[in-house]
Specification:
The complex is a heterotrimer of chains A (453), B (255) and C (144). By secondary structure, chain B is α+β, with helices and mostly antiparallel strands. Chain B has helices at residues 29-49, 57-62, 73-88, 104-121, 206-219, 223-229, and strands at residues 8-14, 17-23, 127-131, 134-138, 147-152, 160-166, 170-176, 198-203, 234-238, 244-246. In chain C, β4 (67-76) and β5 form a beta hairpin. The chains are: A alpha/beta (453), B alpha+beta (255), C alpha+beta (144). Chain B: It comes from [Kitasatospora] papulosa.
Chain lengths: 453, 255, 144
C-alpha cells in the first residue's frame, strides 16, 4: 500500500511528522490548580488568627468564597472557545472539565453562603434569619450577590441529570446562559465584602485582572470574532440534499472559507440566521474537506435543531465559529489507521478518510443498509486510494454482532498496531472501545470524539 | 494614689438596706459627732417613712388614720418634693405607685442627701455617702483626686458598666432590677417595669436624681428622650439584652 | 456519586487543615499594623484638674485597613477615666455591626483595667443580704 497525499494536504503543506503526545491536557489543569493554590495563599497571608467557633466558621466561609470566585472565572475561561485550548485539549474534554468544575463551584457557592451567614450570626449574637436579612439588605452589593446566588442554585438544579432528561438540549442551553448574569452580579460583592480584599491592593488588582481578562476573552472569542467572521465569510446555505433516511447534507457557500482553517476532522459551530435557529450555535463536523468557497456538513435529525436544518432555504445566512476539535491527523502516532464510524459519526471520518495519509481502513456501522450515508463517496475514495471499507449493518440489541474483538480483528488484520479514530453514538462508542481494548489496541491509540456535551 | 488612712468610714444597716459613709476629711470631734447625728437621722426617717412598719406615720397617713397636718414637717417636705417630681416626670414618678401611699422612691435619696448635708455643715467637705447604691458626693477623694464611682453591671455580677468621675459635688443614682427583681412598677399600669435592666442618673443632688432615676426606669423606652431634655442630668442605661445607651452629655462623667 | 463524596470530603479536610494551622489567639499588638496614636494635649471644659497627667488627649487619626480610627482619652491624675471613640469604620453594614459590638467592649476593657481604684459603687438598690455580696461591701471592708 502506498500512501497517497491528497491535493488538500499538499496545498496546506502538512507534513506527516511524528506527532508528540500533547502536553496540554496535563499543563492546563496544572496551571488551574496552581491558581487554586494562589487563592489559598491569599487567604493564608491575610489571616492572622482563627479565634473561636465564629472564627472557624467565618474562616471556612471565606475560603470557600474565594475558591468559588476563582472557580467562576475558570469556568468561563474553559468555555470561552479559545482556539489554543480547544485545539490542544479538545472541545469535549473542556466541556467535561467545565461540567465537573461547575458542580464543584456551585457546591462551594452554597457552602460559602451558609457558612458566612452562620459565622456572622455567631459573631454578632443574632439569629440566622436576622443576620441573613442584614446581610442581604445592608451590605454593599449583596442584593445583587443574592440574586446571583439564586441563579447559581437554579442552574445547579437544572443541570442535574433528572432535570435535563425532562427538557430539550436547546432549552437547557438557553437557561444555562443565566450563569453569565450570575457571575456578573456576584462579582461586586467579592471585592466590597471580601475580607481578604479589604485594604489589600495587590489582591484586588489580581482579581480584577483575572475577571477582566476572562471577560475580554469571552467577549472576543464568543461574540466579536463570530460576528467578524460572519461578515467576512458571508456564508449562505446553497442547497440541502438528503443522504439517507433522516440524514441531510447542507451545502454552504461563502468567501475566504479556507481562512476558517477547518482541518479534516474538525467541526464548526453553526448559527443559522432563521427565526427558530438564530439564538444557538450548534456543532457539526465538516463532512468534506474545506474548500475556499464551499463547505459541507452532514446532519442526522436527532433533536429540534438538527431537524430544522432539513427545512433550511437556500440563501439563508449563516455564521460559523471555529474551527474546533482535536479529532485530527495530529493525534496519529503510527502509520496504520482504522476509522471506525457509527451512524452519523461518519461525518468527520469521511473527511479524514479522504485526507489522512498512510494505510487507512474504514469500518462503517449502521443499523440498516440505507442508513449508510455518503456511501457512494466512500466507495469512490476507497477506490482512489486503494483503501478498504467495511460496511457493517444489522443487529439491534447493542452492536455485539460485529463490534467484538474477534469481529474487528477479522476485518482489520494487525489491529493492535493501528491508531483508531472512533466516532459514533455513546453506546456504540463504548462497545467499540471495549472491543478494541480486548483486541489489544492500547488506550492511547484510541482517539474518540464525543459530541455529548 | 494612696488610699487615705486618715478619714472616717462607717457602715449602717437601716431602712432595710445598708448605708456606707466615706469621709476623707480629718476626723475631728465635730465630724465624729456629725456622723453620729447623721446615723440617728437615718433611723428617724425610717421610723417616720417606712411602709413596712404599720405604725409609721406614712402608713397611718396612707390608711387615712391621721391627716397631713398631724405629721412631722419632714413628711410635708417629702410630699411637696414628690408632687414636684411627679410633675417634672410626667407622672412616671408617682407617690402612689401601686395605689397606696409610698414615697420610698424619693425618701432614700432624700435621706442620703440629708446625711451628707449634716456632715458638710460640721466641716466634712470631702464625703461620699452611699445609701443602698445611690450616692451623694461632695468635694474630693484626695487632694486633686476626684471621686470615682463604679456603676455595677446589672447582668454581669461583679463587673462594672463604666466609671463615673465626679469633678464637683455629684449625685449618682441607679435604678434597676438586679437584686430585688422587678420591684419598680409602671404607675400607669401597675405592672413591673421591664424595658430596661438598669438606669444610672447623674445630677447635682441625690433627692431628685434618685427620684428621676426611678421615674426614668419605670418609663422605659420613652426615658431617653425625656432625659435628654432634662437639664442638668445625664444618664446611662443598660437594656436587658446587654445593649447600652447614654445621653449626649454623659461622656463628661464617664465613658 | 462516590467520587463526589470523596472530593467533598477531601476539600472539607483541606479547609479544616488550613484553619487549624492558624494560631487561635488574637495576637498581641502588631507593630507592623497601625502605629499607636501620638497624644496631643487638648484641654477640654470638663477637665478642671491642673496637675500633670490630667486632661483629655485626642489621638491622631490612624488609618487601618478597614478605615480610620480616632480615639480620645480622658486622663485624671495619671489614670484613664474615660474613652471616647471619635472616628471608627462605619462605611458599610459590616463595619457598623462590628463597631456597635466591639467599641463598647473595648472601652469597657480600658476602664475595667483600672477599676481597682474606684471609691464606691452605684447599683440597683440592695438589701442587707445583697450588700454582703456587693462590690461596695468589698470596698467598705477594705477600709473600715
Amino acid at each position: 500500500m502506498t500512501s497517497t497525499f491528497t491535493t488538500t494536504d499538499a496545498s496546506r503543506g502538512i507534513r506527516h511528522r511524528r506527532p508528540r503526545r500533547s502536553v496540554a491536557p496535563v499543563l492546563v489543569p496544572a496551571v488551574i490548580w496552581a491558581g487554586v493554590a494562589g487563592v489559598l495563599a491569599l487567604w493564608w497571608s491575610d489571616t492572622s488568627s482563627v479565634v473561636g467557633p465564629a472564627g472557624w466558621i467565618t474562616g471556612a466561609g471565606r475560603i470557600t468564597g474565594l475558591l468559588a470566585g476563582y472557580g467562576c472565572a475558570i469556568l468561563l475561561l474553559l468555555m470561552a472557545r479559545l482556539p489554543l485550548l480547544d485545539h490542544t485539549v479538545g472541545t469535549d474534554r473542556l466541556a467535561r472539565w467545565h461540567a465537573w468544575g461547575g458542580r464543584c463551584t456551585i457546591s462551594l457557592v452554597l457552602a460559602h453562603t451558609l457558612l458566612i451567614i452562620w459565622g456572622y450570626s455567631l459573631t454578632s449574637h443574632t439569629n440566622v434569619v436576622g443576620q441573613t436579612s442584614t446581610l442581604v439588605l445592608h451590605y454593599p452589593d449583596m442584593l445583587k450577590g443574592t440574586i446571583g446566588f439564586l441563579l447559581f442554585l437554579a442552574t445547579g438544579v437544572l443541570s442535574a441529570r433528572a432535570a435535563r432528561r425532562r427538557m430539550s438540549y436547546e432549552t437547557w442551553h438557553y437557561l444555562h446562559f443565566a450563569t453569565y448574569l450570575a457571575v456578573f452580579l456576584a462579582f461586586g460583592h467579592q471585592l466590597s465584602d471580601g475580607a481578604d480584599f479589604v485594604g489589600n491592593r495587590p489582591a484586588r488588582i489580581a482579581w480584577y485582572t483575572l475577571y477582566v481578562g476572562v471577560a475580554a476573552l469571552v467577549a472576543w472569542y464568543r461574540f466579536v470574532l463570530p460576528v467578524r467572521r460572519g461578515m467576512r465569510h458571508r456564508l449562505r446555505v446553497a442547497a440541502v440534499h438528503p443522504e439517507a433516511p433522516g440524514v441531510v447534507s447542507v451545502h454552504l457557500t461563502g468567501e475566504h472559507l479556507d481562512e476558517l482553517g477547518g482541518v479534516p476532522g474538525q467541526f464548526l459551530r453553526w448559527r443559522f440566521l432563521t427565526r427558530e435557529l438564530w439564538w444557538t450555535a450548534n456543532p457539526y463536523s465538516l463532512s468534506a474537506p474545506a474548500h475556499p468557497r464551499h463547505l459541507r456538513i452532514t446532519v442526522k435529525s436527532a433533536g429540534g435543531h438538527s431537524s430544522a436544518l432539513a427545512r433550511l432555504r437556500p440563501g439563508t445566512r449563516v455564521w460559523a465559529e471555529g474551527p474546533y476539535g482535536g479529532f485530527t491527523a495530529r493525534r496519529r502516532t503510527v502509520p496504520k489507521v482504522l476509522l471506525l464510524a457509527g451512524g452519523v459519526g461518519i461525518t468527520p471520518l469521511r473527511t479524514l478518510f479522504e485526507t489522512l495519509p498512510g494505510q487507512v481502513t474504514l469500518v462503517y456501522r449502521a443499523r440498516h443498509a440505507e442508513d449508510l450515508a455518503l456511501r457512494g463517496e466512500l466507495d469512490a475514495i476507497a477506490a482512489r486510494r486503494q483503501a478498504t471499507v467495511h460496511y457493517v449493518t444489522g443487529g439491534t440489541a447493542g452492536y455485539s454482532s460485529s463490534l467484538t474483538a474477534r469481529g474487528l480483528s477479522d476485518m482489520v488484520p494487525d489491529l493492535a498496531a493501528h491508531d483508531v479514530y472512533l466516532c459514533g453514538p455513546p453506546g456504540m462508542a463504548r462497545t467499540a472501545t471495549e472491543a478494541l481494548r480486548r483486541a489489544g489496541v492500547p488506550a492511547r491509540r484510541i482517539h474518540h470524539e464525543s459530541f455529548e456535551f | 494614689m494612696s488610699d487615705t488612712t486618715a478619714g472616717l468610714r462607717h457602715v449602717e444597716h437601716v431602712m432595710g438596706s445598708v448605708f456606707s459613709f466615706d469621709i476623707r476629711d480629718e476626723p475631728t470631734p465635730a465630724v465624729r459627732r456629725a456622723l453620729d447625728e447623721a446615723v440617728h437621722h437615718l433611723h428617724r426617717i425610717d421610723e417616720v417613712f417606712s411602709t413596712y412598719r404599720p405604725d409609721s406615720c406614712i402608713s397611718r397617713l396612707g390608711r387615712g388614720e391621721i391627716r397631713r397636718e398631724d405629721c412631722p414637717s419632714e413628711v410635708l417636705e417629702v410630699l411637696f418634693l414628690c408632687a414636684h417630681a411627679a410633675r417634672v416626670s410626667d407622672g412616671w414618678f408617682s407617690i402612689v405607685p401601686e395605689g397606696t401611699l409610698d414615697p420610698s422612691g424619693l425618701v432614700k435619696g432624700w435621706a442620703v442627701e440629708a446625711a451628707s448635708r449634716i456632715l458638710h455643715e460640721a466641716g466634712a467637705h470631702d464625703t461620699c455617702v452611699n445609701g443602698g447604691g445611690d450616692i451623694q458626693i461632695r468635694g474630693r477623694a484626695a487632694p486633686a483626686t476626684p471621686w470615682r464611682i463604679g456603676v455595677a453591671h446589672p447582668l454581669r455580677p461583679g463587673e462594672l458598666v463604666t466609671v463615673v468621675t465626679a469633678h464637683d459635688d455629684l449625685a449618682v443614682a441607679t435604678s434597676g432590677t438586679a437584686e430585688r427583681g422587678a420591684h419598680i412598677v409602671d404607675p400607669f399600669t401597675g405592672r413591673p417595669a421591664t424595658a430596661l435592666a438598669s438606669l444610672t442618673l447623674v445630677g447635682p443632688r441625690l433627692t431628685l436624681t434618685d427620684t428621676y432615676a426611678t421615674a426614668a426606669f419605670a418609663r422605659g423606652d420613652g426615658a431617653r428622650d425625656w432625659l435628654e431634655g432634662l437639664h442638668g442630668y445625664e444618664a446611662l442605661a443598660v437594656t436587658p439584652d446587654g445593649g447600652e445607651w447614654r445621653t449626649t452629655g454623659f461622656h463628661r462623667y464617664g465613658s | 456519586m462516590r467520587r463526589a463524596v470523596l472530593v467533598g470530603t477531601g476539600s472539607s479536610a483541606l479547609v479544616v487543615a488550613l484553619l487549624a494551622l492558624k494560631p487561635h489567639q488574637i495576637p498581641g499588638p502588631d507593630t507592623s499594623a497601625a502605629r499607636s496614636p501620638v497624644p496631643s494635649h487638648t484641654s477640654t471644659g470638663a477637665s478642671t484638674g491642673t496637675s500633670a497627667g490630667t486632661g483629655t488627649y485626642t489621638g491622631d487619626p490612624v488609618d487601618t485597613r478597614y478605615g480610620t480610627v480616632q480615639v480620645a482619652v480622658t486622663v485624671t491624675d495619671g489614670r484613664i477615666t474615660a474613652v471616647k471613640v471619635i472616628q471608627a469604620p462605619d462605611q458599610n453594614g459590616r463595619d457598623q455591626q462590628i463597631s456597635s459590638q466591639a467599641l463598647p467592649q473595648l472601652t469597657q476593657e480600658a476602664i475595667k483595667a483600672q477599676s481597682a481604684h474606684i471609691d464606691a459603687v452605684s447599683g440597683a438598690s440592695y438589701t442587707s443580704q445583697g450588700y454582703a455580696q456587693s462590690l461596695q461591701s468589698a470596698l467598705d471592708q477594705a477600709h473600715v
